[in-house]
Design a protein that fits this description.
single chain, 961 residues, alpha/beta, Aspartate Aminotransferase, domain 2, Aspartate Aminotransferase, domain 1, 7-stranded mixed sheet, 4-stranded antiparallel sheet, 37% helix, globular
Length: 961
């Protein structure tokens, strides 16, 4: 029998990537469609998506390519980047990522596919890792309370400005910045200050605060330590003077320098901020990197962002959780003090583990080596007649060569080293962990100097001021002393990851969060040195491949959303919101409509919407939500009429936060436009629209996107994220720009939103690769299968749990909300009980009580196959049966498998006095003993942790090994 002939062209194409990305195959899709009641994906989405928003024609994207071909294309882009030795500094430094951390954290899906630890019982590993990070920051800065990371140094400093204004005694006055602060930090602060009416003054504070500024009142001061010029000076006099004026003092400090220098807290600082990038995190053309903030105890409860705290579980055992204001913006909305949502967890974990691996002695040794190279470099230049501006420095020199600075920088570049052109007369040179003798020789040569390292090493003296040398011990906790060998480190990382639940274990059905596949092919290029080793302020001609990738990604994001221009600078969704609202504000002001400051926001909206609006200088007016979950049209029209002349923008999420396609969205947009306002479409739910509808075409003027949702950048345990902003043409002149890279945005832009010109550029290859692998048809089918999965779950669960909201034809979008409130009223079983019981079944819970209290919002995404979706549905149905047994009185309300969940292995030891069996507790229906996930702790007492706030590694006497 002759085999069928298969054309070579078909064999060469192989399996399309979309079949790898989309979980349900054709047969599974047919079964799911039958359950939902439709014959095809097109029939389903035709019925679900309102006609008024549908896009005409296919997306104009390059044809999908194979994984092999796309990696080759990426390699060609990477090869167009020139990776020179970077001695630019300005807060970004070369670093060696220990291979054990590179392989077992950065490249490990157990770490990068985890979600924010809102379910702490199954997040103990990453919470411990973040507690390590907090301890590193607190110890090195000399301030007792540190957060679990912020977005970057510039935005951390801006958050410090807001904190100082909020908690300080001086309620007016200016925010004073020392001129020796990083220029990108100053620019970000100025962007953030202007909309809220804060006056920023930049001045030379080396001789103290000038009298004319002191007379105006100063509510906050920002100092850099060491300065951007490299100078190390004693900040105590200016800090004391600032405190006499009632100001709150922030010191932006280099963590590596702090291993040798007196910490900011000891100098008198109230707040310390900075970046942890040089602790083993590649520069990545600007990010992502974990910014940090540490504060005095009295400000701990005002700290922005996330804070990991130590609490206890139901058995009284130590357990970690997010504490205090972790989701403050969701609770306080327009009264929130920060819009921070995404952190930089994966990068904070890496930085913390870098400190764990090296320990205090190892970090100090790296710092001493770095300083020694700077000292030798300076002495060689001085011997050759070059003036070194400052006598005290850590790693950065400013060399004065009147009229020759550009010539020196060009010569160094020819020798393979990037230096910083300060001005026509001065050159900045920064040493780091990677600096070697070859770099010193190249720099000396660029200045026209000859020097001998060995000879200099016998005579050159270190230059750190004796009065500023650190004398206290730091990182004394055992965790920073026990993992010196790679074997020990490897096992520690594995131990922590085993305590967690991530996508590599099973489904994370979080509504609004889109936990889809982060494909290995998409992730691989991130660690290539051609993408990872570039400094964000390197000459643009050295980043030709990067800029091509960025431009192509921006153009493709514009195509899929229907907007005219996209900026990828915002490094989180919340920052994209802020960028979009600042563009709207600038547009109105350019038109002479400065009175347009009202932002209408539905009551169901994500809490960052309102927080971002306030930060953009707007006043939030809340629009009611109707009983069916849609915007209350009558109330919307009333609010528009009431504020017609002041209306700046309406912020809506589409599909709605309730997971439905609202049919009147185009009319809503038209009504706002008729009143002179703009429409902001929150792109959090774009996974229900790609290939089907474009917000820029059905009425949106501006949207932010979440690349860490729809476009496959992994959540990383709570970050990194990227939140590009897309706008129609009339808003394009007001997108973010950057003073250090003019090509990064329009000259008329609102200023930088992030410290780096292209934000978290280092992870953009992930989204570029996703779009390139999927093509137009692949993206459309992914959306259709995401909608199918949500409707399949809704249909399967509807007989057991009410589905709260539906849209056209009784269908949902890409997520559905099941209502537990009637069951809670009847049985006492709460949404928390169901969420924790799902852990016993081997699942991460769906989103709890958002946007409606007492509900679960479920989003399967397109990447979960039918077997896993069915396993989840069967678990939910089995839990419904357990709830019935509580309701019938068979199990007591306070003592049943739900109220006691989750059950640990330790809970099974000893006497068992529960009204249900051990098997029921830990091996409920469908759970295999061989594949069981065991949570490391029982249910955690959150209130205890908030009352007894501990936010760094517990003291030695509490250490249990």
């Amino acid at each position: 029998m002759t085999a069928n002939r298969i054309p070579l062209s078909r064999l060469e194409r192989g399996t399309p990537f979309e079949h790898r990305h989309i979980g349900p195959d054709t047969e599974a899709q047919a079964k799911m469609l039958a359950q939902v009641g439709y014959g095809s994906l097109d029939e389903l989405t035709d019925a679900a998506v309102p006609e008024v928003i549908k896009s005409a024609g296919a997306l104009d994207l390059p044809e999908a390519r194979s994984e092999r071909d796309v990696l080759a294309e990426l390699r060609s882009l990477a090869d167009r980047n020139q990776v020179l030795a970077s001695m630019i500094g300005l807060g970004y430094h070369g670093t060696f990522t220990p291979p054990v951390i590179l392989r077992n954290v950065m490249e490990n899906p157990a770490w990068y596919t985890a979600y924010t630890p809102y379910q702490p019982e199954i997040s103990q590993g990453r919470l411990e890792a973040l507690l390590n990070f907090q301890t590193v920051v607190a110890d090195l800065t000399g301030l007792p309370t540190s957060g679990a990371s912020l977005l970057d140094e510039g935005t951390a400093a801006a958050e410090a400005m807001s904190l100082a204004r909020r908690v300080g005694k001086v309620k007016n006055g200016v925010f004073l910045i020392d001129a020796d602060c990083l220029p990108q930090t100053i620019a970000v602060i100025e962007t953030r200050a202007e909309p809220t009416g804060v006056e920023v003054v930049v001045a030379d504070l080396s001789e103290g605060i000038p009298a004319e500024i002191a007379e105006r009142g100063v509510f906050g001061v920002l100092l850099q330590y060491p300065g951007a010029s490299g100078q190390v000076r004693d900040l105590r006099p200016v800090i004391e003077q600032a405190h006499e004026l009632g100001a709150i003092v922030t010191v932006a400090a280099d963590l590596l320098a702090l291993t040798l220098l007196t910490p900011p807290g000891e100098l008198g600082a109230d707040i310390a901020v900075g970046n942890s990038q040089r602790f083993g995190v590649p520069m990545g053309f600007g990010g992502p990197h974990a910014g940090y903030m540490a504060v005095r105890d009295k400000f701990a409860r005002s700290l922005p962002g996330r804070l990991v705290g130590v609490s206890v579980d139901a058995d009284g055992n130590k357990a970690y959780r997010l504490a205090l204001q972790t989701r403050e913006q969701h609770i306080r909305r327009e009264k929130a003090t920060s819009n921070i949502c995404t952190a930089q967890v994966l990068l904070a974990v890496m930085a913390g583990m870098y400190a764990v691996y090296h320990g205090p002695d190892g970090l100090a040794a790296i710092a001493r080596r770095t300083h020694r190279y700077a000292t030798l470099l300076a002495e060689g230049l001085r011997a050759g007649g070059v003036e070194i501006v400052h006598g005290s420095y850590f790693d950065t020199l400013t060399a004065r060569v009147p009229g020759r600075a550009a010539e020196v920088v060009a010569a160094a570049r020819e020798a393979g080293v990037n230096l910083r052109l300060v001005d026509a007369d001065q050159v900045g040179i920064a040493c780091d962990e990677t600096t070697g003798r070859a770099e010193l020789a190249a720099v000396w040569g660029a200045f026209g100097v000859e020097a001998d390292v060995a000879a200099l090493d016998t005579t050159a003296q270190d230059t750190l001021p004796e009065a500023l040398l650190r004398t206290d011990e730091y990182l004394t906790h055992p965790v920073f002393h026990q993992h010196r060998s790679e074997t020990a480190m490897l096992r520690y990382l594995r131990k922590l990851s085993d305590r967690d639940y991530a996508l590599d274990r099973g489904m994370i059905p979080l509504g609004s969060c889109t936990m889809k596949l982060n494909a290995t092919t998409e992730m691989e290029p991130v660690t290539w040195s051609e993408f990872g080793a570039l400094h964000p302020f390197a000459p643009v001609e050295q980043a030709e491949g990067y800029l091509t990738l960025i431009n192509e990604l921006e153009e493709r994001l514009a195509e899929v959303t229907g907007y005219d221009k996209v900026s990828i600078q915002p490094n989180a969704g919340s920052q994209g919101e802020l960028a979009g609202l600042l563009a709207v504000r600038a547009y109105h002001r350019a038109n002479g409509d400065e009175q347009r400051t009202i932002c209408l926001i539905p009551s169901s909206a994500h809490g960052t919407n309102a927080a971002s609006a306030v930060m953009a200088g707007m006043k939030v007016v809340v629009v009611k939500t109707a009983d069916d979950g849609e915007v209350d049209i009558e109330d919307l029209h009333a609010k528009i009429e009431q504020h017609r002349d002041q209306l700046a923008v309406l912020m809506i999420t589409y599909p709605s936060t309730h997971g439905v396609f609202e049919e009147h969205v185009a009319d809503v947009c038209a009504t706002v436009h008729d009143a002179g306002g703009q429409v902001y479409v929150d792109g959090a739910n774009l996974n229900a629209l790609l290939g089907l509808a474009k917000p820029g075409k059905f009425g949106g003027d501006v949207s932010h996107l979440n690349l860490h949702k729809t476009f496959c950048i992994p959540h990383g345990g709570g970050g990194p994220g990227v939140g590009p902003v897309g706008v129609r043409a009339h808003l394009a002149p007001y997108l973010p720009n950057h003073p250090l890279q003019p090509t990064a945005g329009p000259e008329t832009g609102v200023g930088p939103i992030s410290a780096a010109p292209w934000g978290s550029a280092g992870i953009l290859p992930i989204s570029w690769t996703y779009v390139r692998l999927m093509g137009a048809e692949g993206l459309r089918r992914a959306t259709q299968v995401a909608v199918l999965g949500a409707n399949y779950i809704a249909k399967r669960l509807e007989p057991h749990y009410p589905v709260l909201y539906t849209g056209p034809n009784g269908l949902v979008a890409h997520e559905c909300i099941v209502d537990l409130r009637p069951l809670t009223k009847a049985t006492g079983v709460t949404v928390d009980d169901v969420a924790k019981r799902l852990i016993d079944y081997g699942f991460h819970a769906p989103t709890m009580s958002f946007p409606v209290a007492g509900t679960l919002m479920i989003e399967p995404t397109e990447s979960e196959d039918l077997a896993e979706i069915d396993r989840f549905c069967e678990a939910m149905i089995a839990i419904r049966g357990e709830i019935e047994r509580v309701g019938s009185g068979e199990w007591a309300q306070g003592d049943n498998p739900l109220s006691n969940a989750p059950h640990t292995a330790a809970a099974l030891a000893g006497e068992w006095e529960r009204p249900y069996t051990r098997e029921t507790a830990v091996f409920p229906a469908g759970v295999s003993a061989a594949d069981k996930y065991w949570p490391p702790v029982r249910r955690i007492d959150g209130a205890f942790g908030d009352r007894n706030l501990v936010c760094s590694c517990p003291p030695l006497e509490d250490y249990d090994g």
